[in-house]
Amino acid sequence: MGDLRAGTTTTAPRPRSLEERLDRLAMVALRVGVGFEHDDRLRLVGPLEAADLMRRITVQAYELGAAYVDVRYVDPHLSLARARYAREETLDGFPTEQADLAFTVAERGDASITVSGKDPDALASADPARVGRMNRAANRALRATSDLAMASHMPWTIVPFAVPAWARKVFPDASAAEAQARLWDAIFAATRVDADDPVVAWGAHATQLDALAERLSREGFEALHVRGPGTDLRVGLARGHVWEGASSVSGVDGRRFVANIPTEEVFTAPHAEHVEGTVRASRPLSYGGQVVDGFSFTFEGGTVVDYAAERGASVLRALLETDTGARRLGEMALVPHSSPIGAAGRLFYDTLFDENAASHLALGRGYPTTLRDGAARSSDERSHAGLNDSLVHVDFMIGSAEMDVVGLLADGDAVDVMRRGEWVLGGL
Amino acid sequence: MGDLRAGTTTTAPRPRSLEERLDRLAMVALRVGVGFEHDDRLRLVGPLEAADLMRRITVQAYELGAAYVDVRYVDPHLSLARARYAREETLDGFPTEQADLAFTVAERGDASITVSGKDPDALASADPARVGRMNRAANRALRATSDLAMASHMPWTIVPFAVPAWARKVFPDASAAEAQARLWDAIFAATRVDADDPVVAWGAHATQLDALAERLSREGFEALHVRGPGTDLRVGLARGHVWEGASSVSGVDGRRFVANIPTEEVFTAPHAEHVEGTVRASRPLSYGGQVVDGFSFTFEGGTVVDYAAERGASVLRALLETDTGARRLGEMALVPHSSPIGAAGRLFYDTLFDENAASHLALGRGYPTTLRDGAARSSDERSHAGLNDSLVHVDFMIGSAEMDVVGLLADGDAVDVMRRGEWVLGGL
Q1: What is the chain B residue with the closest CA to A44?
Q2: Residues near B15 by beta carbon (within 8 Å), at least 6 away in sequence
């Protein structure tokens, strides 16, 4: 019959403009990401080029009743200038007043939103050893603050922004404008901004991931055995480990928040001393503005005893030399190959995207929240349970359509968890 | 005869590219502005849109041996968001951790460069009373830090950047690109970037202004009588006042620095209680992103007892209501109408430019350095000498080709200082 009103016909919904979608992404960051509430203070950090989104987040935060929004713009060109031109002996320095400020704000429990989006090769022209030195100094100075974040003390989240240099890297054959438009489409799909009601869509998605995490926690695996091209790795899990899904709970006021927008993963704590075998990364890694590709690690007694990389071996070396814990695992995360981001079949050269496209491991510090009552335990107790400690936490991807994961139980039983990159655990 | 080398002819020097001129402006900021030295730390603050210059300053600072460069990008859109959307009762807040950081850095004596350049109407759509409330809170929180700057504790300077919205305001009839190019030309001329050797040119210029300041200090005027269109004002000077030229001396290490790039002024301290008559501004004032125009003040006993404005009276009201000192004078500066910036015959809607195009006064706090040994005196002693105190310091322009200034001596003698906007003091 059609619509009877003159001059109208039944049509598909009008496509939303970039501006509307950015406003929706701002809303997702605030309402889903940090569970923003009236009278909250917000700390907002992101690149210069993301100013458009950061201004929208600021406006909406004030409309939601923010007490204050403090914005810090970051600029990789400044890190590059330092990495290239600063005197060698100054690279171990970090402005303590900036570290103090970050800690004050985090300890007070201010909500924290980081806008992520950068040229994966931003520091490609700098000496990896010098960049490594700068990163170590920063990680050392900001250690107390990242401890608070990793223990879910304050509500925090990371949301993406399609900066042009990143878009060019992901879509090298497209024009600059088209590359950015395509990256935005990928971002808005992955962040559920294009859903009818993004907040409702996130509620359903988080419920699903949280239920999956609970199901895995109940299994009580002693270890996971991961097999795939170039990979045959036994990852022991920490004693009393639990799996986490999308939702975290703030230690300050108990509110729920979602630390990664997007997120498709469930993750838990490996045992720092019980990892054996070899693992080959399935995707390149952009770490500190430098790309590592075609790399693998061999573990013995939980520690990397050998590594190789087709590109960026010196970046990897600087990372592994950070401290003892940088050579051990702090996170094991499972993501089905058919996840919306993985299904896009793209390399994103960005941890926030690639880690939600593929199962992954992280070198370095583990999350206290992936131990039962972990946030309440002392660091000795955490370490005794097998939780790794380090200045760094760096994810790298291992998932693919050829990855199998088997769960090993204390009684010797083995349970299929993933086959060919997809969940096969009974009851899922 | 011409040049005998084959294929060459005598030509004018190749015009410098924008990039070269920006590099030179960065050099002037560092070497002239803050007298940058090996192992200095630098605090660099400026608008997002000035990133190009700020990155060049950062690179050159590291090349000069900087220990660290800490950059803070500011964004008037964020202030506008707060002014428009934040809850009324939150406007008196200011992030104390940011104020603490600014003070720590200043007290330590880090060199400080502020890049100035903004849309003069950036906050035009906001309620002036709300903006006034935000400004008061910021001025209160940053009071201790600005005390250090006004006493020349650390080396600091301000340099301009031709942001597009500012260029459009100054050259409203030009295209966006042409307006910016013309503003850059004005900036590079005024900042002596286009001189053969900008650092040498600045040395000569500063010597000249410093000698002029010394000459005026020796006169020991009791007051200045200023007359012009709408202006008949007697400005008593503080007891023991001295005039300052271009050069300041850092309290931390005695180095010389030039706090304004450009500067064309000599300035001293009015007596807070001895100002009588009426003064009409000769140029509009952009204060906190809002423009005031066609305004005048009437003083009795040093205090504004009446004021009027053709535009922006409510901005003026918010300023005058800051505190008692905001209604009194803290600076009297003389600039000949023929100064390079004044001679350009342009309104710049920017204090750094307009104050160096025209003689001016400032409402609010006086500079301790404009009293003999002022930095060493207690605030009671400064106040007793007549130095004004306030949370604010806001320059407004009074100079024109029709302004006369007479110096009044304690014995009743009168000495012509400026006539029709030009120096006539004997010996200049």
Answers
A1: B78
A2: none
Distance from CA of A265 to the nearest CA of B (A): 34
Of the residues A39, A87, A103, the best mutation for testing chain B's interface (the one with the most B CB atoms within 10 Å of its CB) is A87
- CA distance linking residue B340 with residue A271, whole number of Å: 71
**How distant is the alpha carbon of residue A205 from its chain centre?**
17
Q: Do B97 and A86 touch (CB under 8 A)?
A: no
ipTM of the prediction greater than 0.90, yes or no: yes
CA distance B126 to B122: 9
Say yes or no: domain A18-190 is CATH 3.40.1830.10. Answer: yes
Q: How many CB pairs under 8 A join A and B?
A: 97
A137 touches chain B (CB under 8 A): no
CB atoms within 10 A of CB B74: 17
Which of B:30-49 have CB within 8 Å of A? 41, 48
Which among B421, B372, B426, B414 is positioned nearest to B221, based on CA atoms? B414
Contact B211/A at CB under 8 A: no
Cβ contact B75–A68 (<8 Å): no
Rounded to the nearest angstrom, the minimum Cα separation between A80 and chain B is 9
Task: Output DSSP code: residue A349.
Answer: S
Contact A55/A25 with Cβ under 8 angstroms? no
Q: Residue for token digits 């301790």?
A: B368
- Name the nearest CA neighbour of B28 among B187, B191, B155: B191
Residue B291 bridge partners (DSSP)? B286
Q: Which of A77, A90, A105 sits opposite B68 (nearest CB)?
A: A90
Find the radius of gyration of the CA atoms of chain A.
Answer: 21
Q: What residue ranges of chain B are covered by domains with CATH 3.40.1830.10?
A: 18-190
A151 Cβ neighbours under 8 A, 6+ residues apart = A251, A367, A368, A369, A374, A375
How far apart are the C-alpha atoms of A241 and A269, rounded to whole Å? 6
Which burial class, exposed, middle or buried, applies to B37 when counting CB atoms under 10 A from its CB (0-12, 13-18, 19+)? middle
Rg (CA), chain B: 21
- The shortest CB-CB distance from A51 to any of B75, B86, B95 is to B75
CB-CB under 8 Å, B82 with A69: yes
Q: Are A341 and A399 in contact (CB under 8 A)?
A: no
**pLDDT tens per residue across span B5-36:** 444 445 566 789 999 999 999 999 999 999 99
**Per-residue model confidence (pLDDT) at position A375:** 82
Burial class for B15, CB neighbours closer than 10 Å (0-12, 13-18, 19+): exposed
Task: Let me know how long chain B is.
Answer: 428
Divide the 428 residues of chain A into consecutive groups of 10 and give the mean pLDDT of each group: 46 82 98 98 98 98 98 97 98 97 98 96 95 95 97 97 97 97 96 96 97 96 97 98 96 96 97 98 93 97 98 96 97 94 87 94 97 90 97 96 96 95 84
Select from B44, B90, B100 the residue whose CB has the most chain A CBs within 10 Å, as the one to mutate to test that interface.
B90
